[in-house]
Amino acid sequence: MRAGLAAHRSQLAEGRTRFAGKLDPFSVAEVFAMATQGGADALGLGDRIGSLSPGKCADVVLVRATDPNLFPVTDPVAALVCSAHPGNVDTVLVDGVVRKRAGERCMAVSVVVVVGDVADQLVPKIAERAAAIRVGDGTRSCDMGPLVTAQHRDKVAGYIDSGERDGASVVLDGRHVRPDGAADGFWLGPTLLDHVTPR
Fold first, then answer.
1. Per the CB 3.0–4.6 Å rule, which of 50, 61, 83, 190 could disulfide with 37?
2. Residue 104 gets which letter from DSSP?
């Protein structure tokens, strides 16, 4: 949003557009509307998404207004359009389901508890499916992207380190993933731990 607003205003100010003198600069509210409801309308989904309205999918992005680049927030719309970046995103809900919380992607699914030797049959099948998950930057086909910051990547990798130190078996290790993306991304692949103790 910020880049689009700056480019638009620059073109008008420098007369580099055929609309110079005919079009007023967009306001931050107009840019925000274009990015939300306008984007949904352009995709033909304006009746389902784009705004928080009864009957529409509950798609919500919560940002941390206390982050230094946003605080103090005197105009929430202007702060989002002109100052916010992906690192400010704390929680994301898609159709009412939490997909990201505390800055980390939420991959939680229903918990399955297996009894007896069924686990020994199930773990290899889960590992096979998880190993097939494609990790990448999204420019080509992928199933899973990077974490939002290096700190978050290190935090999650620390959980794997901790489980391994406590005696868990690392069946699938995402710490050494080879992603389809830039080498300096905050990558962590699918990971599967087995024989985890309850401490």
1. 50
2. E
pLDDT at 7: 75
- Is 106 noted as a catalytic residue in this protein? yes
- Mean of the per-residue pLDDT values of the chain: 85
With cut-offs at 50, 70 and 90, classify the pLDDT of residue 110: very low
Residue pair 105/147 in contact by the 8 Å Cβ criterion: yes
- Which listed residue (57, 82, 106, 142) is catalytic? 106
- Determine the CATH number of domain 118-194: 3.40.309.10
* Omega prior to 72 cis, within 30 of 0: yes
Just give the CATH number of 58-108. Answer: 2.30.40.10
Choose among 142, 128, 129, 126: nearest CA to 178.
Answer: 142
- Structure token digits, residue 181: 């993306």
Sheet holding 60-63, edge to edge: 60-63, 89-94, 97-101, 104-105
